[in-house]
Amino acid sequence: MTKQYDAVIIGAGHNGLVCAFYLAQAGLKVRMVERRGVVGGAAVTEEFLPNFRNSVASYTVSLLQPKVIADMRLHDHGYRVVERPISNFLPQPDGGYLKLGGGLERTQAEFRKFSHHDAAALPAYYDALEGVAQVLRDLALKSPPNIGDGLRTLLAGATQGWGLSRLSLEAKRNVLDLFTKSARSFLDSWFESDAVKAAFGFDAVVGNYASPETPGSAYVLLHHVFGEVNGKKGAWGHAIGGMGTITQIMAKVCRDAGVEISLESAVDQVLVDGSSVAGVRLESGEEIAAKRVIANVGPKLLYGKMLDASYQPEDFRRRMRGFKAGGGTFRMNVALSELPRFTCLPEPGEHHQSGIILAPTLDYMDRAFLDAKRDGWSKAPIVEMLIPSTVDDSLAPSGQHVASLFCQQFAPELPDGRNWDDEEGAAADTIIDTVEAQAPGFRASILGRQILSPKGLFDTFGLVGGDIMHGHMSLDQLWSARPVLGNGAYRGPVKGLYMCGAGTHPGGGVTGAPGHNCAREIIADKGSFKRFG
Questions:
Q1: Residues 402, 54 contacting (CB under 8 angstroms)
Q2: Is 531 domain-assigned?
Q3: Which of 184, 212, 221, 465 has its Cα between 20 and 30 A from that of 364?
Q4: Could you tell me the residue range of the domain that residue 507 belongs to?
Q5: How many CA atoms lie within 13 A of 392 on its CB side?
Q6: CA-to-CA distance for 34 and 43, rounded, in angstroms?
Q7: What is the domain-level CATH number for residue 293?
Q8: What is the pLDDT of residues 403-442, one digit of tens each?
Q9: What is the number of other CB atoms lying within 10 angstroms of the CB of residue 415?
């Protein structure tokens, strides 16, 4: 090892790129090493059929931090997000449908088709969620207290707890409900219509291998509502050019700041010298010397494969073995000759620009999870379809389209020794059957497809168990306990080892927050007096 870096970052996903940017801004010499031949991690755009391009894994925008967008000046380099006209569209078993979003009055009008009670309850429900979501927004760019840091822990805990302490008693009750209850239990206390509860409950199972009956699933629902698009809180949108446009812009900004990015450079091992990291060894045999190693991979991958167990304290190692990861997600991209024609709403319209949710009730979602636990996947899976080519004509030829199918309740590991490599085609056919039942002719319109089972998501992106969150978003794996108490402030168990991915606070989604926060901690440890951000 000859060339010395201040920091080497494992993985050029969006959080790694954000971290690299801030470190370079602070004057550190940074090198990133990425296993794939393209930057972006799971936020990439690729051509999967000639002339058809789409976001391969991550597929929609809301949670990316406004501060990160501003600091990296993404808009100056072509970052553009188009807001969905409505949030979601849910076909119903009786031939009807529900549209969610487009403003309070529009949503209330939709709810009145199912329940006047639920339409009247909606403003208070939104206020309750927004009150708690604002606390999360305030915490997202703060490092959680690291248990064991003495006075620093007490000060950080007191400072971050201040926001919670100022909430009204009613709001504190909402916090307790959302962090501990199941999505069903929480939604049952607000609404009576199955369709309305499904419209909100879907967020509780996104990337979450769990039932809406599972205690703690209400928090996952909340996690998906604390973002914004173009200043509008809670909104979701399409990134023009796909998610890969975001990370390509980030990579350009990083390179302009002096960051070196090495592609096709898979890490084999984190190197340790005495009690501190010394760099990384690539699978090619190349060794890169660095004072700091920053992992943008998940905790399971970092501590299970890249850092030798002898450098991990026994209690830490035992707890990391118990760290829960496995999202139950199955991703497909399909090229279409035409837009799907839904039986309940066949003509083109705003519903084609929304999230199309094929999961009409919480009971449906619960059965999908139970079936997946027993059989590997449900014969009636949860499907979310987005058709970004309806707002971005760069993704498909004129008159044709691409669709993302983001599907839930597919077992990370199949039962009875079966392998996803052998069964992903059958699972993909089940997903297409599920859409076909609501939109006859959908199967015939498919020109080609790209399939990523939970195993495919691991093989391609290093997502253990297909977990887009890098680990379950359960109460025992949040805030200071993400990934484990005592290492919840982006620092690993070896001096100079840091974590900047979704396996740290505040968790999954394309947020940039873990990368931002990790960089701040590194700069603080360095004793830099340069302005952060």
A1: yes
A2: no
A3: 465
A4: 4-44+58-81+241-324+470-526
A5: 27
A6: 13
A7: 3.50.50.60
A8: 999 999 999 999 999 999 999 999 999 999 999 999 999 9
A9: 11
